[in-house]
Amino acid sequence: MFFSKRSRQPITWLLVFLGNPGAQYDNSRHNVGYLTADALSRRVKKRIQRVKFKSWVADFDYGGVHVLAMKPTTYMNLSGEAVREAAAFYKIPPERVLVVCDDISLPVGKLRLRRHGSAGGHNGLKSIIGQLHSDQFPRLKIGVGAKPHPDYDLANWVLGHFSPEDAKIMDETADRACDAIECLLAQGMDRAMAKFN
């Protein structure tokens, strides 16, 4: 008989990695959150695959705290539903919900940590703000580059795939994002912002 060795430590942080489920979205700009989750999964040697809170989830120790990593499966525009359910279940305040997402205003591979802020036109962030009734949650934005010209359709851009060159940059960026998350959890936002922004 096999028994689970699931930790009994309380979950004190939610790590929310935004993206869209489905193979057609793999390697797309909007899925850099999922890409980072997969890098973290390899790092901690724990698959983020259990189904709970309309997400694929896993809990583990990281940066000295016990976290729940989430890849919402609601599609981007409804991500807040998954986050609200998990935050309510574990009684996690917005200040300890870290959201990892794409940002078209940043160059490819650039990281930017923020304590809080508006959605900035990002529908996943907009959904989370609406469901939590707060914009006071930290976020790690990952640059995916701006549209090639102003008339280019935004949805086509963020759902489009990286070039081979940019995909290589994003793989390296996902690893740096994991470092940034670990620094934030272990040493606080000020230290993480100084080191990674």
Describe this structure in words.
This protein is an alpha/beta fold and 197 residues long. The protein has six helices and seven strands; from the N terminus they run E-H-E-E-E-H-E-E-H-E-H-H-H. Strands 2-3-4-1-5-7-6 form a seven-stranded mixed beta sheet, with helices on both faces. Helix 1 crosses helix 5. It starts with 12 loop residues before the first strand and ends with a helix.
**Average pLDDT taken over every residue:** 93
CATH architecture classification: 3-Layer(aba) Sandwich
Strand content: 15-25%
- CATH class category name: Alpha Beta
Number of strands: 7
The strands making up the biggest β-sheet line up spatially as 2-3-4-1-5-7-6
Instruction: From the alpha carbons, calculate the radius of gyration and give it in angstroms.
Output: 16 Å
Distance between the termini: 48 Å
Number of structural domains: 1
Give helix % range: 25-40%
Give me the number of helical elements: 6
Structural class: alpha/beta
Major sheet characteristics: 7 strands, mixed
Secondary-structure element series? EHEEEHEEHEHHH
Overall body shape: globular
Classified in CATH, the superfamily is Peptidyl-tRNA hydrolase
CATH-defined topology:
Rossmann fold
Low-pLDDT residue spans: none
